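Quick one, tokens below. Sequence please?
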């Protein structure tokens, strides 16, 4: 029985290490994105986070990483279905942040796995706002961005430095995503206006 228990403990340890390695790989594909967003890297991150989400659907980091991957693909490819999926996972990640406090294991490298629920909420709300903007919604993003900025300021005032999240892309890449989201949203709004004009005629 003791041998069986040791075997189970070893399996749990290896499974945990495998999960951490996968998170690391998925996050790295996003974290190292530059202004010239590498779509292949984002696709790899999406697949990794999808697999992790099947195993651990209640992990806010994983759902945020998956949502962010889908957001980037949706914006860069102007794919509405990806953006709607991104919103689904980012909303789920927000709920998971609110429901429970995320705990960083003592042996987990905090530089890679940042689990501060407040910092996570700020980043998730920001990315959720971008998905809304890309879909042509110019109302919802305002409150999302205001909440995100308020939380971010509190976190940075407390930590005295910006917080890096392993699953989120670099600031330079986010600027590109923001610009593309605004362009996509503008196109969507123009199409909607044309439809309204035609229906009136």
């Amino acid at each position: 029985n003791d041998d069986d228990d040791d075997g189970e403990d070893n399996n749990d340890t290896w499974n945990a290490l495998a999960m951490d390695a996968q998170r690391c790989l998925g996050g790295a594909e996003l974290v190292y994105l530059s202004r010239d967003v590498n779509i292949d890297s984002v696709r790899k991150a999406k697949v990794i986070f999808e697999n992790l989400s099947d195993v651990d659907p209640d992990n806010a980091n994983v759902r945020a990483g998956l949502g962010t991957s889908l957001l980037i693909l949706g914006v860069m490819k102007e794919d509405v279905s990806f953006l709607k999926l991104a919103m689904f996972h980012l909303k789920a990640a927000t709920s998971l942040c609110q429901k429970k406090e995320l705990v960083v294991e003592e042996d987990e490298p905090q530089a890679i796995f940042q689990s501060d629920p407040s910092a996570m909420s700020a980043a998730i709300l920001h990315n959720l706002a971008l998905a809304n903007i890309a879909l042509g919604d110019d109302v919802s993003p305002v409150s999302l961005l205001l909440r995100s900025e308020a939380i971010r300021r509190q976190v940075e005032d407390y930590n005295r430095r910006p917080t890096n999240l392993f699953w989120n892309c670099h600031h330079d890449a986010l600027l590109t995503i923001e610009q593309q989201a605004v362009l996509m949203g503008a196109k969507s709004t123009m199409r909607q206006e044309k439809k309204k004009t035609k229906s009136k005629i």
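The radius of gyration is 19 Å. Helices lie at 2-31, 39-55, 60-77, 80-99, 117-134, 140-159, 171-200.
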